[in-house]
Amino acid sequence: MAKYRICRLPGDGIGHDVMEACMIPLEALGLDVEWVDASAGWCMWEKYQNTVPEETWKSLESTRACLFGAITSRPNIPGFKSAILQIRQKFDLYVNMRPVKAFPGVPLNYRDNIDLIIFRENSEGLYSGLDYFPIPDDFMANELLAGKVKDAANSAISIRLFSREGCRRIVQAAFEYTRKHGRKKVTAVHKANVIRATDGLFLGEAKKVAERFPEIEYDEENVDAVAMWLIKRPESYDVLVTTNMFGDIISDEAAQLIGGMGLSASGNIGDNYALFEPSHGSAPKYAGQYKVNPTAMCLSAKMMLSWLGEEEMADKLERAIAGVLAEGKTVTYDLGGKASTLDMAKAFAEKIK
Ligand code: IPM
Ligand code: MG
Questions:
Q1: Closest approach atom of ligand 1 to CA 244
Q2: What is the domain count for the chain?
Q3: Do 119 and 252 lie in a common domain?
Q4: The model's pTM
Q5: Which of 85, 251, 256, 282 for a ligand 1 pocket mutation test, highest count of atoms within 8 Å of Cβ?
C-alpha cells in the first residue's frame, strides 16, 4: 500500500497542462503515493450541470489531501456553483495560505527581497454565497413563482457573514505559523473604519489572539493602504492575515510583485483535510498548448509535501525550482523563455536528481 492516497484533480483548461507537468518532479522525488483521479469544474457542469458530481465527492473523501489544477467559473448561469468554493466549504478548509516569495533570477520580480505570506480566511465573508434580490413591493405571486425577482429587483444584497470563531481561527493559524517558522510580524488587514460590524469583530478577535503571542509583533492596517504599501515597500510585510475577499484581491496583487500568477501557489487547509492549488485560473485560451508556467502548480505541490510532513522532499523541490528560475534557461514564455510547460518541469526533475 502506498504511503499516501491523494486526490488528483486537474479541473479545466491549463489545469491539465500544469498537473501533468507537476507529476514529473514528484516522481523524481520518489513520493510514495496512490493517486485517485477526479474531475470537477466547468467540464462537469457541461456534462452533468453539476460542477462537483457525487463521484468526485467520494474520491475526495477517500483521500488525505487533494492536488488541484484550475477551474473555469462563469457568472450569470442559473444554478452554477464554483467547484472550488464548494470544496472549500464542504471540507471546512478555512485557511488559504498564499506565500509570496521573490525567487532570484525571475526577470519580473519587482524586488528581490519580498518574502511574505498571506493568510486568507477561506470559508466565510462575502464568499459565503448569501446573495439575494429583495422582492419589489408591487410584485405578484405569479411573478415570484416564475423566478422573475432577479430582473425586477432594484437592489441586490450579498451578506458578509463573519463568525467570531471564523475570525479567531484564521488569526490563530497565522500566528501559529509565524511562531513555528520564526517569522516576526503579523499584520491584520481590514476596513473596520467603514465596515464596522464585520471587520470590528475580526479585529477584536485578532487582538485577543495576538496577546497570546507576545514575542510576535502585531499590527493592523486598512486594506486600501496595504494595497498601496505592497507596491511601495513590500519588504516591510511578513505575515498578513485577512478576510476572504480582501485576501483574494491582495494575493493577486502580491503575486504580480514576484513575477505573476505563474509563480503563485496556495494551500487550502482545514483541520482534517487540505487542498493545494496554484492561485491562477484555467486560462482556456492556452489549454493543451503546454505553454504556461508550471511553477505555481509545483510550488503548491511543495506546500502539500510540507503539510504531509515530508519536509525533506519539500525542500528539495523548492531548491530545484529556485535553481531553474535562477538559471533562467529552461523557463516558459511568461519569464522570457521558450521552454514548454513540460520542459520546465523536466528541468525541475533534473535538478532533483
Ligand atoms: C482564488 C480564485 C477563486 C476565489 C475563484 C476561482 C472562486 O480567485 O482562489 O483566488 O475567488 O477564491
Ligand atoms: Mg483569486
A1: 12
A2: 3
A3: yes
A4: 0.95
A5: 85
